[in-house]
Design a protein that fits this description.
It is built from nine helices and no strands. With 277 residues, the protein is an all-alpha fold.
Amino acid sequence: MFARITGAATRGALVALLIAMPSMLLPVSATESPEIVALMAILAAGLTFAEYFSNYPSFVEFREAPPLNRMRFAAAVAIVGLLSLLVRHPLDPTGLTTLVNNLGTRLGEALDFAYSPVQLTVLMLPAETASAVAHSIRSAASIAYVVTALAILGFGIAIRLGNWPVANGAFNVWVNLPLFDPTTGGDVVTRLQRDARVNIILGVLLPFAIPATIKLTSSLIEVSQLTAPQMLVWLIAAWAFVPASMIMRGMAMLRVAELIAQKRRAAYAHAETLQTA
């Protein structure tokens, strides 16, 4: 019981720290509505604590199948932290912010090619946007995109080389996929594979579709407001993290479907052996 309470409290505190990170790293002049940020951090911490303290899952998937959620959280922390330092550089430069800014500039130059997601994030800006703001957005998009790509690669390695998730013991579908009902909708393996492919396809397309959608709806959305420091951090983080999280979820579901299919084949082979014997 004590270990469960400690683990749930630690996870809740880490989630609260993630939400408060931009406000903590940015100068006071660049932060907006600290009361709302504090309230959101407390609510997120409470929900996380309740989820991991309970014996019964509710909405967090792959709760007992590390390191998937840990890799997702580490990627989110890296993106939000690096983007906060990047946005802080023009306002309050330090040695660390200079290092992040130089990294973003180099990655932006490498990833700003025709039809790339990074280029599309720059093209969605109004024509009158200052070059410094466009450069900052390009650097932020490049950093976020590289971090999420590394997270996806790391999870792929964990699946193939680390034998995820069976390396951690038996995989419980109900605990790790609480929103998936295996008793309805046809064959479980087919449904898992279909849902996985949908998630992967959407995850690949969203980094391209989101900037295009914002550009098309620029008459309804004040794009210049999206370049405020704190807003910029969260928008770019969501633009990169949500699609990557969907891809990782698709990869995980494909792996679960593969394990179920393997167990079925082993059961059929065992049954045939008993019949011939």
